[in-house]
Amino acid sequence: MKCPCDDKVFFKFGVSLIETVIALGVLAVAVPMVFAALGEASRCGLTAQAETRSAWMIPACLEEIRASRNASPRYFASTSAGQIFPPPGDLWALAFSPEGEPVGKISQALYDGGLRLLDGKKVLYILSMAASKDTGNALGAPSVTPLLAVRISLEYPAGSPASKRRSLQFHTRMP
After folding, report:
1. Which of 50, 63, 47 is nearest to 172 (CA)?
2. Could you tell me if residue 25 is inside a domain?
3. What does the alpha-carbon distance between residue 47 and residue 37 come to, in Å, rounded to a whole number?
4. For the segment 153-173, what is each residue's pLDDT rounded down to a tens digit?
């Protein structure tokens, strides 16, 4: 009887060393690219969620600013029309849940270090607010009505230190 190893057809079904090296090279390039794409998709997803939730969170911040003007603030000190905020040395920052609901005011230490929970509620977003005197319109002429330039910064994820958070900036003017 003839041994199957002696038949040349038996060896045609194998894989050569060069084919194996090429396949490993393709995998060495493809696998890191897949993981990088997954990481970027996660970052894009967080940004999309933040932009979507901003439709609820920014009006809540503006309402708190208006309430401070009307002497009925929920989180911050009362201010008068035309007064810049926050007062020197203070921070106006609110924590928001993953659903975009306000959770509460946060201190400078929590803002700097990051937080995941506040009063037993999960926190994903931090919005900080500040106003400065408006210097005039785009043409450089002084404003007829004195307005404040208001900047609201939406930062996420809240659990990261302030220096590592991503942010979206929103600007408006108010008396």
Report:
1. 63
2. no
3. 15
4. 999 999 899 999 999 999 988
Q: Which helix (H) or strand (E) holds 42?
A: helix 17-69
pLDDT in tens, 61-93: 999 999 988 888 899 888 888 888 888 888 899
Residues in the chain: 175
**Beta carbons within 8 Å of 57's beta carbon, 6+ residues apart:** 96, 100, 102, 125, 127, 154
The answer on pLDDT for 125 being more than 60 is yes
Residues 6+ apart with CB under 8 A from 144: none
Q: List the beta bridge partners of residue 121.
A: 118
> Is this model's pTM higher than 0.85 or not?
no
Give the total number of structural domains in the chain: 1
Q: Could you tell me the residue range of the domain that residue 108 belongs to?
A: 32-174
Three-class SS of 8-27: HHHHHHCCCHHHHHHHHHHH
